[in-house]
Every structure is written in C-alpha cells, then in structure tokens.
Amino acid sequence: MNKDINHTLMALVPILQANGEKVVKIEAVQDWYMAKGKESREYCKEVAEITYENGHKRYADIGGDANLTALYDILAVIQEIKHGSGAIERIERGIYEMPEVCR
Length: 103
Description:
Layout: H1 5-18, E1 23-34, E2 42-52, E3 57-61, H2 67-78, E4 90-92
C-alpha cells in the first residue's frame, strides 16, 4: 500500500455515506496477533478498521495490496461479499498518516 492509504480510505467515506452506508471512518492499522501452534509468536497483518455511526467496527484484510485493491477489499466487506478479518487482537494506529480532518 502507499503511504497515503488513509487519505484514500477517508475519501471513500463521503461516497459511502451518499449511498446510505453509516460509515464514519476507515483507517489502515496493524493488527498484532498470536499464532496458534507450538511456538508462541506474534504476527502482524494490515487491516482497514471500518467504523460505523453507532460505534460498531469491522475489519478488512488489506495487507500488501495497492490502494485500489484495498478499496475493493473494504467495499467487499461492507457489502458482505467477503468475510471481515478475524483474529483481531492488538491494534496499532499511526502507521499511516491520517488526513487533518480526522485527527
């Protein structure tokens, strides 16, 4: 993904709202989680945190994708074409710059 991914994601919010979606924020974050198995090792994946007006959050896997592909993955989760990301354990923010209006 490009370093400006959060600018791209937040530009999508008004379009979603104009189409009746109750999304207020989309942010690219890192999710750190423990893998199941013999070794207790922590892994990281990049996800988009989708926040709705009522505070509900959903997550879409976006790691390693170009910005345009990340948009597709997010839209697919919002439209329930694709399952949201599972195993969300420890979110780390501030990896990618957020637009000024969102801070």
